[in-house]
Amino acid sequence: MEHLSITDPDQRFFPESWFLKGEGIIASEKRMKDLTGIFEDTSAALSIDPEILVYRVQAHLPVPENTLGGLFLGTTTIQPGRVGEEYYMTRGHFHSKSDRGEYYWCMHGTGMLIMMSADRITHAEKMFRGSLHYINKNTAHRVANTGLVPLIFGACWPSDAGHDYKSIERTGFSARLKEKNGIPCLIESRL
Ligand code: PAN
Ligand code: ZN
Fold first, then answer.
1. Is the shortest distance between the CB of 163 and ligand 1 below 6 Å?
2. Does domain 24-183 have CATH number 3.40.50.720?
3. With contact defined as beta carbons under 8 Å apart, do 53 and 76 qualify?
4. Cα torsion through 78, 79, 85, 89, rounded to 10
5. Strands 139-145, 19-22: parallel, antiparallel or unpaired by DSSP?
6. Residues 43-46: contacts with CB within 8 Å, 24+ apart?
7. All structural domains of the chain with their residue ranges
8. Residue nearest to atom 16 of ligand 1 (CA)
9. Does the beta carbon of 76 lie inside 6 Å of ligand 1?
10. 23, 39, 66, 118: which could form a disulfide with 83 (CB 3.0–4.6 Å)?
11. Consecutive 10-residue runs of the chain (191 residues): their mean pLDDT?
């Protein structure tokens, strides 16, 4: 970068779709076949086309993973849908460096941010266009789309946080978000 230079940004997003474009932006997708074991109702999960898209993530990673002092920014789009009584949702994770927090903010649709502390206390915050969420350190987090349209949210997290999916694969969250009588409710998990 030259002294006194004025340049265009290397990245941008499109406010209508929140699509990110530019240098250093990566994308990933999770289809039903990638989410084995995430939903409680395994026979309902098996009855859904394994190629169905559940969510897509785009992220801007300006520095290498594990860099201390940098930030990453992502957008996640979760399709509407259900597996049995559960809504389409992200896998959920703790951060590998468990004392790293994160911000989420909702840009489109409605959903629920489900958070679980290290001592397995689980609660949820409602997500809607304009909702802002601070995820504390040592807190597992996942998002469910409770609405009928795609849920789009942004995320910003430290570049040295990392993602620990194994703990959730092993022991899950202590509660699941299920639709009961048309209403999303947190229900104690079966072990
Ligand atoms: C988010 C999540 C994203 C997808 O960017 O990674 O919503 O969820 P899973 O990673 O649980 O599949 C974030 O929390 N980053 O730290
Ligand atoms: Zn995270």
1. yes
2. no
3. no
4. -20
5. unpaired
6. 44/83, 44/84, 45/83, 45/84
7. 24-183
8. 157
9. yes
10. 39
11. 94 90 95 97 97 98 97 98 98 98 98 98 98 98 98 98 97 97 95 67
